[in-house]
Amino acid sequence: MPIGNTLGLPRGARAERLAPFVLVAPAVLIIVALRLWPLVLGVNFSFTGDGERNGTPVGLDNYAELLADPLFRTALGNVGLLVLLLPVAVAIPGLLATFIYLRVPGHRFFRSVYFFPAVLSPVIVGAIFNLMLGYDGPLNTALALIGLGPIDWLGDPGLAKFTVVGVHVWATFGMALVVFLAGYSTLDAALLDAAKIDGASLPRIIWHVIIPGLSRTIQFVVVTTMIGMLTSMFGLLYIMTSGGPEGSTYLPEFYVWMQQGQMNRPALASAASTVLFLIMLVVGVAQVALLRRAGSED
């Protein structure tokens, strides 16, 4: 019922109708004040100039400069790579949660071990893997024992981006694992039992029972994982590669920091932030739409 129509109700009924709006209002005000309003200011600032043109309207000049910058185009290309690798980043915690839910031997121990990386700082994770993946590090030493040559995990432009993304997935999939386990608590166990009685194999159970039953959970994990990849990899990038080698590991988030903190180009950084926001919005909406469509077809 609209708020205006509550005026004709008894006082108690009016209070009951308005209670949800009153309870939600503080959270909405906080979001508007700390999220939406700064976003509007940032978008507006992206149409102004830097340096001698500071504060002067420049139209789309900053966006044209972004598209002409090879580093920013590389960052956008890496965003495409993240989108392609997203199913892997979601499938890993999903499969591990499935094994834990099905109570494979040692599932209690693995539940603790899998979540442990999520409590580590990205700086610590980056420092640990810098030591492990160094050219003379333990991993290459182990590979040499089986006759494989040393691999430049962080120095090869074609390999470094995959290395950093892999480390990020390892460091963050614990939270997605917890979300999947929470989703399993809403799954109808009778369906699993019926599938087992019918002799369905584990892949068939996962595809025909678990995935449709966890469709909303999967949607949530897909969107939050994608946002995390685009906005939470700065610490790892800074410690492991600093955007190198040859700018191959640049992401829009790192590009924004470089323009704002190193180049003193806040307006250009605001334009890059706006592009990053639009990318997250478009990718998130597209992913949810695809997942809903796939769920409806099942």
UniProtKB/TrEMBL annotation:
Signal peptide per UniProt: none
Annotated localization: Cell membrane
InterPro entries for the chain: ABC_transporter_permease, MetI-like, MetI-like_sf
Predominant localisation class: membrane
Protein's name according to its UniProt entry: Carbohydrate ABC transporter permease
The ABC transmembrane type-1 domain, residue ranges: 71-287
Segments passing through the bilayer: 18-37, 79-102, 114-135, 167-187, 220-240, 267-291
Family label: Belongs to the binding-protein-dependent transport system permease family.
Organism classification: Bacteria, Bacillati, Actinomycetota, Actinomycetes, Streptosporangiales
UniProt source species: Nonomuraea salmonea
